[in-house]
Amino acid sequence: MKTARILLAATMLSPIAPAMAQTATQDEPGTQAEPAEAPGEILVTGSRIRRQDIAGVGPATVVSSEQIENTGIVNVETLLQRLPANAGFAGNQSSAYWTGNGYGTAQVNLRGLGIKRTLVLLNNRRLVAGGTGANSSPDLNMIPVVALARAEVLKDGASAIYGADAMAGVVNLVTRTDVNGFAFSARSGITERGDGGDYSIDGMWGMRGDRGGILIAATYQKTEPVNMASRAPCSLSETTPGKLACVNSASTIGGRAVLPNGQQINFNQVVGGNGNFYEPYSAAKHNFNSNPFLNAVNPIERISTGVFADYDLGPVELFGEALYTHRRSDQIATPGTLRNLSISAANPTNPTGQNIVLVQRRLAEPGPRQFFQRTDTWQGTLGLRGKLGNGWAWEVAGAYGRNTAVDGSTNVANLQRVGYSLDTSRCSFTPGAAIPCADYLGFGDLTPAVLDYILVTTRDRGGNALLSLTADMNGDLFRLPAGSVSFAAGVSYRREKGWRNPDPLTVAGIANTNQQSPISGTTTAKEAYAELSVPLLSGTPFFQSLTIDGAIRYSDYDLFGSDWNYKISADWTIVEGVRVRGTYGTGFRVPNVPELFGGVSEGNLTTTDPCSRYSTSGNATLIANCQASGVPAGYVQLGTTILTTVGGNQNLQPESSTSWTVGTVLQPRGILPGLTLTADWFDIDITGAIRAIPGSTKLGICYASSGLSHPFCGDFRRSALTGEVTYLSAQPINTGREEMSGLDLGLVYSHRIGQLQLTADLNVTYLDRYVIQPFPGGAPIIFDGHIGGGNGGYPKWRGYGVLTAKRDAIGFTWSTQWIGTATDFNAAPTAIGYRTPDTFYHNVQLAFDVDGRTRFSLGIDNLFDTAAPYIPSFTDGNTDTMTYDLMRRRFYASFRTAF
What is the CATH number of the domain that holds 780? Predict the structure, then answer.
């Protein structure tokens, strides 16, 4: 099977193109070293020692600005999330489950180990977190793409080099230093169905002279929404074996209530109908379709700006960077739900003559809720660098970044006022009353006066701040027969702060939204590192070169004490074109501000209840456990969401890791000039891992345990009346262990046939093993080969490749993203969608260069209109929106010129 998969990966070369030049042995085209660097030397991701290339440092992918343009990508988020090394949960516009408190924040999740374990840098320096308060990662799209020379993705742990957050790898965005003059570009795109329009305008001006230069860049981008119902008309479930049908929310627009004898009834749902009408509740008849009130793609409007400058003062060089981003993002959400309202028989609005409990009543009269975010993020860096008389280079720099935001929601019910409107001793049915009495029993019975009284718009405020001070130096210590022994060392101070102040009604718990508590916290780190590169052999049989690198880092955290981490690597060129490399290192990550101090909040998250239709499952353990929980024999989950508690956990402790890679680079120049093949095995082991286990996974594991013995069984409660889950906790915990291993394969080939230049680039990742032990001694949770349940996707195989053909002024690019098969985390093996198919997304672009400065291009993304596969424990849209494309086929045109 593995051999077949590798052959399948190889066949992708026909429809793919060079979006990534990996393990390059020379500088990328269109980029050049900074003035302070020695000729041919660059500061590469994964090392503080200046080198000739990135090939010996570790498994890395480099994406140049030219390659970004050839694939029509307009933001860093899309660029990185297409890479096969990206997996699991990450924020994007097609996911309603953007990171908590960070709606609209674009992120990357290397290896699927979590965004908090992927370090994002700009020119080798940290960026402030983005979002709406107390967040854990930068917003990738705060960098104008037009200003990028390349993006370097190190797929290897680098805590010894960069400190915490680099357990899974590092993304380093490198800006251009070669711009002279003004450049302008524009792009417009739209889906085949006429929605989801996206527009971007880029401007860039640069000037370089003998003593330095400046680059000013700005990007304006606007994306229009795509409604969920246009891609997935309703939420699907296997209501009968072998058949999918709409299963809508049990929060009905008329109101679902329970009589004293336990019978469930539902009130009028017809506009203008009998306000006193009620009948036995029927899920098929009364449930609410939420999809028209959700987006498959959420709208964003953003302007990102950057200024990058350097000037030679003689003995030293002064450099600086300034970034500013303003973002407006919005989402729609289903009308809010009122829960468990006790309405007495004496209430004039109650036609039953009995005391009832209104279990769920959706406030559909005012329409959907409108979520909104307005963020401002800026960061400034100032520094000096130079060279000593012995050739050693040094640099000192300080950076300060700050992110502030306002976010909130419309049409939120004030629960205190809801209670007043039911209390006939307080309210009045008289028109113009200060507290109007409300009739919640039946759709359309809520008057405009009642809606004005009970509904509010909430506004939350929050932000993030980063202060970073660094001092580094590097150079050659002495020379050995095989070459110079290089050394780098430095110290740093870092202070990170996050805060979030929810609306007072939300804090008080009387707003009908996700209850939250204020968040505020600060962490500081003082660190020092040293790195050494020793060339042991050179020019001997079977040892054309052999270099050993080592790094050590000391970190002192104000909340958790100190720790040492180290890394050692070897780069061995056996003969010309045959190279072997390997690394081993340790990592240490302290909990970040939101993990520690994040206020507890509640939200309705898509969750699969394993006890739904349990009596017909044929699973003896499941049947016994559901019966022991008091779930009725005919119980069917009412809707697809469960109220879930998320937030911080101040009892968290640091996590530590060990990781190693071993690989080879083959360049058979005598046989196939221009061909580079790479293969790298990776292995990562994290102990005390900090992770929030999704609710679906917790429920599934609990009910699979003998006699409900798993500790997860204490993380939820069920209603004694209906059997449905009424409370579920998904707060982060220190799990026992996370173990991951896999293989990265790469192929880069460039060849000229007459006047036709062909370039191919293929990257494939095989995930051999990813297992989470939820607590010491606990049964493992297997992630590799699985998908859904709020975890994101972890297929065994993923790939991305690009083929570019260029002749004279005409260029053609074909790129393909491959997402391998996976099985649902929670569904039964006989369920529809339990196993997803291999999925391919093909994208093409045709470009015409008028001259060296002006270019036109036309492109189609998702060329064959591939639909996202159905997944039983989907997040939204009946699929995993963090893995698959909901937009379907779309077209774009772009134009670029320079003066």
Answer: 2.40.170.20
Q: Is residue 806 within 8 Å of residue 812, measured between CB atoms?
A: yes
Confirm whether 880 is domain-assigned. Answer: yes
Q: Interhelix angle for 695-704 vs 620-628, to 10°?
A: 110
596 within some domain: yes
CA dist., res. 25 & res. 787, Å (int): 36
Domain membership flag for residue 611: no
**Tokens describing residue 620:** 């003896």
Helix (H) or strand (E) holding 418: helix 415-422
Neighbouring CB atoms inside 10 A of 197's CB total 16
Contact 133, 460 (CB under 8 A): yes
Own/partner pairs, 705-709, CB within 8 angstroms, 24+ separation: 705/621, 705/625, 705/779, 706/621, 707/624, 707/625, 707/628, 708/625, 708/628, 708/629
Backbone angles phi, psi at 732, to 5 degrees: -70, 145
Output the average pLDDT for the chain.
Answer: 86
Which range (73-82, 127-136, 616-625) has the least confidence?
Answer: 73-82
Residue 657, domain member (yes or no): yes
Three-state secondary structure call for residue 475: strand
CA distance 879 to 34: 46
pLDDT of residue 20: 34
What's 834's DSSP letter? S
Span 93-108, average pLDDT: 59
**pLDDT per position as a tens digit, 746-805:** 999 999 999 999 999 999 999 999 998 877 767 788 999 999 887 889 999 999 999 999
Could you give the number of structural domains in the chain?
1
* DSSP code of residue 86: B
Give the domain range for residue 65.
2-225+298-332+372-410+460-600+647-694+730-898
End-to-end CA distance of the chain: 54
Distance CA 281, CA 250 (A): 10
Q: Which residues contact 532 (CB under 8 A, 6 or more apart)?
A: 485, 486, 487, 549, 550, 551
Q: What is the predicted pLDDT for the residue at 356? A: 95
Cα 899 from chain centroid (whole Å): 37
